[in-house]
Amino acid sequence: MTKTFLSYVLAAIFAAAPAAAVAEWQAVEEVRPYSISGKTGAELYESIGARGPEVGAGRVIAHTTFKLTWTRKYEAQGAACMITTNRPKLIITYTLPKPSTALPPAVQASWESFIAGVQAHERVHGETIKEMVKEIETMSIGLTVADDPDCKKIRIELTRRLGEISAKQRQRGRDFDKIEMGDGGNIQQLILKLVNGV
Question: Could you say which residues form the signal peptide (predicted)?
């Protein structure tokens, strides 16, 4: 971004927006199961490896995705432009494994412990997504750009800020996964207990 452009950008109004301007919203959270088979922990884990969601170059046990859309209103304020309405619609989808048939009682107990741990892990990703959306909402409501009566420069500035917030959220997810999936991490422990029937 050029210094010339920056000279036209006013700082966002970070002070609390009027209560009516920030509408209450709730994320919609969905679970999308995928079918796996097996009668032992090892067989179930092998089935996860064959049928789990594809992410990057391989398959994973579970995955969290989201769809985010906004209802925004840009209003000219003299020669400036301000975002006066900014309502998110957030749908978070958790893709999780689910055995296709009933399990033997001992395996069922191991499975319930395993899937509870996996769900808890994915819910952390869901929370970071919700926190990201709240940060975007706080940053953008009342955002004002000077010398922008056609509300074009404000869209460029908003996109820049959204990119920074989104990149921060993705890095948080990577850092969390690195800890959870590393040697001795929570996910590794869950896998070992499932496979060993603990």
Answer: 1-21
